[in-house]
Write a structure and sequence with these properties.
- This protein is an alpha/beta fold.
- 37% of the residues lie in helices and 18% in strands.
- The strands form 4 sheets. Strands 1, 2, 3, 4, 5, 14, 15, 16 and 17 form a 9-stranded mixed β-sheet that branches. Strands 6-7-8-9 form a 4-stranded parallel β-sheet. Strands 10-11-12-13 form a 4-stranded parallel β-sheet.
- Strand 16 and strand 17 form a beta hairpin.
- Helix 13 runs antiparallel to helix 14.
- The longest helix has 26 residues.
- The chain is globular and about 75 Å long.
- InterPro entries: Amidohydro-rel, Metal-dep_hydrolase_composite, Metal_Hydrolase, MTA/SAH_deaminase.
- Pfam families: Amidohydro_1.
- GO terms for molecular function: hydrolase activity, acting on carbon-nitrogen (but not peptide) bonds.
- This is Amidohydrolase.
Amino acid sequence: MTETLFRNALILTMAPGSNGATLSGDVLVRDGRIISVGTTVIPTPDMVIIEAAGKLIMPGLINAHTHSSETFFRGRYERMPLEVWLLYAYPLLVGTQISPRLLYLRTLLLAMESLRSGVTTLSDDFFDVPGHDVERLATVFSAYEASGIRANISSAVMNIPTLDALPFAREIVPLELQRLLDGNPQIRTDEYIAFCKEIFSTLHGRAGRLQFMIAPSAPQRCTPDLIQACHALARDKSVPFHTHVVETKTQAVTGQLLYGKSLIRHLHDLGALDRHTTIAHSVWVNDADIELMGAARCSVAHNAVSNQKLGAGIAPIRRLLEAGVTVGLGTDGVCSNDTARILDVMRTAALIHGVSGPDPEEWLTANEILHAATLGGARTALLDHVTGSLEPGKAADIIMLDLDTYAFQPFNDAERQIVFSENGSSIKLVMVAGEVVVRDRKLVTIDEAAIFQEIRETVPELLAEHGEVERRNRIFEPWFAEIHRRASLVDVGMNRYAGDMPFWRRN
């Protein structure tokens, strides 16, 4: 039996009903789980004592949506809308597959940065070109296992050709360019489900903190039978059905042109909108969509920083919350953000919603932001029974912040100063499942300097190769930029205060 006692701490539990109130006292951890919170504990000789006077103890942060596939592309792109950015971050004309060692390092780097910034759980919407491979996904699991982080990990799937998942593409992209993309084989639904079942039998549950989740890329990129089969399997295995929906206006137009309805309505009509459904982005939802989402009690991963960098817009988070939708926070991938720090997302999300309307009572509070970054984020991962708050019986996923830092001088309000002032420099200790993974602001399980050195030595060659891939894909940019431009001129009925509007019209 292993016991750890955080002694004399200021405690922010984020438990339901706590309303952001802090406690003073001890937190006892035994065999990876929280035993008591706030009560005074008499130490025993075998306990590990962590003196926490002058420290704040709180739940580890949850990154509800990210992509480890992008980690090596940090700082590579700017001034690109999503439809253009995808050409370079997820190129249509692919290069050689990244080596297993670089795949491991890429995943590990994301986990390292996440832990250093207080993230104890992340949902990695991992995408691997050209397909789905058990050994390569096992490499991703191995990196997360070595880091000590908790993670939901996917092998994202799509089976509709890119040009058939975009509005206007077939009418404006030159035929010679279309021919470069057509003819690529698409995975069948039964093949993907068989792959997923193999992962559930081999990798799911690894280390007690790593799970597999089902992630069809987006409803317009997947056939209806694939969407329905993925959702059924997610329900059967009690894991998230994690997908991207209406991140951009182009995607809002796509739903109307392809299906004559919104993509949210399309998911609903396929029977794939419920408590298991976690939607990344949800920027261009209308009132009818929000009503469906609230009734389904689905979740949204709000990617406030990425949505701004890619020019996607601001999700209507206040109205989603009022409808009963669970909201978590995501960084998105590192090359559309360009960090893995959920604290940056928290501050951005707390600020940008001030422009969503003139009534300050409708703006998001620090408590709502912090809830989204902890218990709300855990609910998006279907892990709220495991983590997200400091309660007896839950996993000991804990971060300890030093209050003797600039962010807390002087100390006025714990939640507001975490959201508006903290940048991660106060995080002194991080624990996942009762194991300390960051101590005195240093990673415990990993030789950070050695990993950085290996990345400096090996990744430049990969990036040079990717530069050639970018050059090859640049031929598509004018046409994808035109798709983005045309979509921007379409009225998709997004008057969010007048209910569902008629079908689109050209301005």
